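anyone seen this seq b4? input:
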Amino acid sequence: MAPRSSRRPGSRSVSGKRRAKAVTGAETAGAAEADGDEIAERAARLGITAERVLQEYARIAFADLRRVVDWGPDGLVLKTPEALSDADAAAISEITAGAGSRNYRVRLYDKKAALDAIARHLGMFVRSPRPQESGSPIDLAEDAREVLARRLASLAAGSTEE
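predicted toks r here
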């Protein structure tokens, strides 16, 4: 009797090679457009807009721990959920209870990452142009053209030397 495979019938091996299908540029553009349309439709169904995403980033970026907890000689005292605004609640990543009944650890989402995302969205970061290094692809392409031109001139002159 042949040994049974642990794979489900009809499943593909992860390490197996897939056959590549030749795709034209028009097919690729059409597929990308269809994918974009599908993503836009899904976002519309879920109510996801650029404004909502930016608003959530702002809630994280401008969160203030003082609006979430009070602290004093007894440690941190969490405010009640009713006392938190929607923005303050959205900025909380994690609340961990400690050993004591009133001993908590509150973690907010990464403010810097949210601020960076907002700044990129608003175009506040200007990318500096990269300096062209010697031997860059542009230089190499120019060198190849020069070599080809010399060889063509040599052939046209009837010489086999380069």
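The first strand starts at residue 69 and ends at 72. The radius of gyration is 30 Å. kinda curious what u guys think
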